[in-house]
Amino acid sequence: MDIAQLRSFLAVADSRSISTAAHVLGVNQPTLSKTIRRLEKELGVALFQRLPRGVVLTEYGSTLAHYVASMDSNLRSALRSIEALRSAQTARLVVGAGGTWLEDKLPLAVAAMTMRRPAARITIVNENPEALVERLLEGGLDLLFAPIRAADRNRDELVTETLMTGLQIVLGRRGHPLAGVADVPLRALARERWALPGGTYIRERFDSLFVSRGIDPPEPSVEVRDSPCLFEIVERSDLLTYVPSLRLDNRPGRLTQIRSTEATVERETGLITRRDRPMHPLAIELMSDVRAQLGAGATAPRPQR
After folding, report:
1. How much is the pTM?
2. Which residues have C-beta within 8 Å of that of residue 139, sequence separation ≥ 6?
3. Which residue has the higher pLDDT, 105 or 171?
4. What is the C-alpha to C-alpha distance for residues 270 and 221, in angstroms, rounded to an integer?
5. Does a structural domain hold residue 289?
6. Measured between alpha carbons, how far is 243 from 109 in angstroms, rounded to an integer?
7. Residue 74 backbone dihedrals phi, psi, to 5 degrees
8. In terms of domains, do 171 and 262 share one?
9. What kind and span of H or E run contains 122?
10. Mean pLDDT across the chain, nearest whole number?
11. pLDDT at res. 80
12. Is position 189 within any domain?
């Protein structure tokens, strides 16, 4: 028996009519009848009960139909995957990335992918988290690496997977008047001047720190999306900023943590994708490369939600 025979059998089983199945398959009825008889002879059982009008599956036929349907579905999936992998050689991938991901892990993963797929075209988009989520929802991104909380307002439409956990902390220049304080209370931080990353996501999280304790949040003196510019300003002034701890790890030198138990909160960041869009093979490859770069030093990924 071969795949063509089994697909012919499945067509008859689905339509319950040899003539109808022959029309669907584009063959004449005697040829299809001969194919079915040959299959029954090879298996040594009757697959169909012939009726005055049409056919019905026998017990043997029902068993075969169950497995052939699964086989056919798996084969079609395999062929689609092969075609997608073939097209991935020259595919274009658009990736959204929050600032933390641009520091280390994503560039290394993209570099690894370009070595394997030299014809692929990859665009990395860096904006504030809420703008990136909006791009993803509109179809402008294939996948997004960003703070998980950025997806909170669109949970029904998005799938998230935590890849790293860390802390959101206060940073200032080395030598800042608060740099040597063991634990700066939030009320004292409310009296300081601030430079914050642009966008409503960080601003809302920053403001909620103070509002949750009945303190009026300070108005930032500077808001800027470009991280090097932000850090340069903080390094050369008494302004404080509020960023993931990883940013300090990747930028040793003139910045230091301003220790404050009240202002230090857990932060999850990872992968955000659309629930209604299948992942392109190139995107799946990039996700695998990112996980490889995270390696043993990263927090174990949490389940998707």
Report:
1. 0.62
2. 274, 277
3. 171
4. 30
5. yes
6. 23
7. -65, -40
8. yes
9. strand 121-125
10. 86
11. 62
12. yes
